[in-house]
């Protein structure tokens, strides 16, 4: 481990990654850390009155948390850290039991931009959320080698290394046993693992996950490799920044700030859901927090006018084998600190004001930082940044930890960068 790596942060991040095999598990992990730091969970169906200190709302795969200093006026501006809990993967279909040629298989659907070859020949478990007959939900996680998507042997596909791929339907159906398809077999196994009767389960949101544990890699253990680094590194950094700010908050005699973490679901498929960034969830929660402190509509508008959002998502490090696909003058590297992402076509929401706000926070936190802009000849990804900027009308800057193998079943970042990001975010939410 390099000297720049924060051992306590990376140890906690490894545990967070291993425990967050689905967005629902990520929310549970984040909520556990917030509760340990003294944050209180609020129910959306209950009345909110006069809440100060740390609060959070959890809804499915989304979590919103904030800390209100005791002396914060109702019009205090927010400092928002935006992230997302979901990652590209394979999700179980509503009728999962299928098979072919004497094999029992599970029917899955591709979720998000998945490089399918990275899911081949990996030991896969199942995790997610079960919805029961009484309307309650139960998390489930089978963290053992239950499934596998087998690759076709090279003897039967000599052109496999030339880029010829099988069709997506055949390429993604995992095997789990021999025999004829048996209706309800997977659900019975899931129910057994969750300590339930299969007849009590009426709905589910299940997905596959690679059971290989996250780890450090490299000659000096300077890299972190794991599934779901995009974007759980940012979620974890946001939780760390918020709990640290709440623990150390002392105020400076001036106008207080209200730090916020907004971890959305479904970013990888466009954010268009009740728990996605396109929903009114963030706006409703923050406006209710203003009203709970006696604030008016005028206070809400004043708070938004002074608000800044950092949208934190994974970014691309320069690839040593394909450097020509990157901007020739911007080559972010793992270990060099978070990058500020810029795209003039608003695929990222960064402008000069947001750029300066985040870089200033990095400088105050003594954190190195880098720049990212796409090669003009390559399409540019996007994030929740432009969505948040458009919905709330607030200054937004897109940032991220640079890495390789984005959206792969196993991604890579610099081991020092998650700690750098958390330090920069803490400074941002504390002082703006």
What would your notes on this structure say?
The protein is α/β, with parallel strands linked by helices and 432 residues long. The protein has two domains: 7-87 and 227-431, Zn peptidases (Aminopeptidase, 3-Layer(aba) Sandwich), CATH 3.40.630; 89-210, Aminopeptidase i, Domain 2, CATH 2.30.250.10. Helix content is 28%, strand content 27%. It contains ten helices and 20 strands. The strands form four sheets. It has a nine-stranded mixed sheet, sandwiched between helices. It has a five-stranded mixed sheet with strand order 11-12-20-19-15, with no helix packed on it. The longest helix is centred in the middle third of the chain and has 20 residues, at 229-248. The chain is globular, with a radius of gyration of 22 Å. Mean pLDDT is 94; it is low at 250-255.
